[in-house]
Amino acid sequence: MSDAGTHGGRVVTLTANPSLDRTLVLPGPLARGGVARLGVSSTEPGGKGVNVARALAAAGADVEAVVPADRTDPLVTELTALGLPPLTVPTGVPVRTNYSLTEPDGTTTKLNEPGTALDEDVRAALRAVLTGAATGARWVVLSGSLPPGTPEDWYAELVRAVRPTGARVAVDTSEAPLRALLAAGPDAAPDLLKPNAEELAQVAGTTEAALLADPVALRAAVEALHAGGVAEVLLTLGGDGAVLSTADGVWSARPPRTAVRSTVGAGDSSLAGHLLADLAGAPPAERLRRAVATGSAAAALPGSAVPAPHQVDPAAVVVTPGLPSPAPVAAAGRDVS
């Protein structure tokens, strides 16, 4: 069981490339070229930052979601119905739709639309809304892919813009935006970075399999992030748990045995769990425990559903000092939006 209490503090999330997440439940393994009779499907407001905000709100945290979307967009309607009315910047274009094909064993295939390009005026408006909301907040979360045409270093720009507000910054992104963020220098380094194993391998210049098979290489990759100014690294490993590295040490966590229904949004729920524990004043090992428990609970749910507090069981998570031993094998499924 999990308590949802926090000691206070507000979280602001920015989802530059939000989506409506349509989950299609397959009756068996995906067969290319065949016909599938789908099970009960669902549509939920999505994008990685939106998922983080939904998971935080489900646990009773004070959270605001910033999104580029018209006030009449179905995404905004859905979030408002969940009691999470977002701060919006209009674009005049409907939010994209992402599709997840989920097989009975939890294997998930994602088909993501590219999203709407944001012109300079929209980006400036989003920056103003974000920094305004960040004033007095405990955390600002920049999460997910960037829309087409967005400068690759935009997250670095936003980290610098948020710094004067006093809020701490967490970033979860991949590929070119992640590389640009890490290349921007210590003044753009987030307080918390949440890569998965594939993303960490990309920035380390190696393969995911090689990284996870070599604890020395894994530690070197994490230390390189710290050397670049990142204070904390939450490395999620799918079904193999996660690693948290801070100035106080390194911890690894193994999740409880979970019947995986969908991996979509599980990493976002892990980040939300870490933030919830931080808001409650928990030490690093307990932040990691809550992160893994929340991510595991999300993986046991269909689609991109986020867990309620009673579905999260931190006591079932095993946390130990140091890196995982033996090194984990990469779990199936991706958590990218």
Automatic annotation (TrEMBL):
Alphabetized UniProt keyword annotations: ATP-binding, Kinase, Nucleotide-binding, Transferase
Top-rank lineage group of the source organism: Bacteria
Polar residues: compositionally biased ranges: 98-111
Sequence segments annotated as region (Disordered): 95-114
An annotated GO cellular component: cytosol
Alphabetized SUPFAM superfamilies for the sequence: Ribokinase-like (SSF53613)
A Pfam family the protein falls into: PfkB
Gene3D superfamilies: 3.40.1190.20
Ranges for domain Carbohydrate kinase PfkB: 42-309
A molecular-function term among this protein's GO annotations: ATP binding
Transmembrane intervals: none
Keyword Lipid biosynthesis included in the entry's annotation: no
InterPro entries: PfkB_dom, Ribo/fructo_kinase, Ribokinase-like, Tagatose/fructose_Pkinase
Family of the protein in this entry: Belongs to the carbohydrate kinase PfkB family.
Name this polypeptide is given: 1-phosphofructokinase
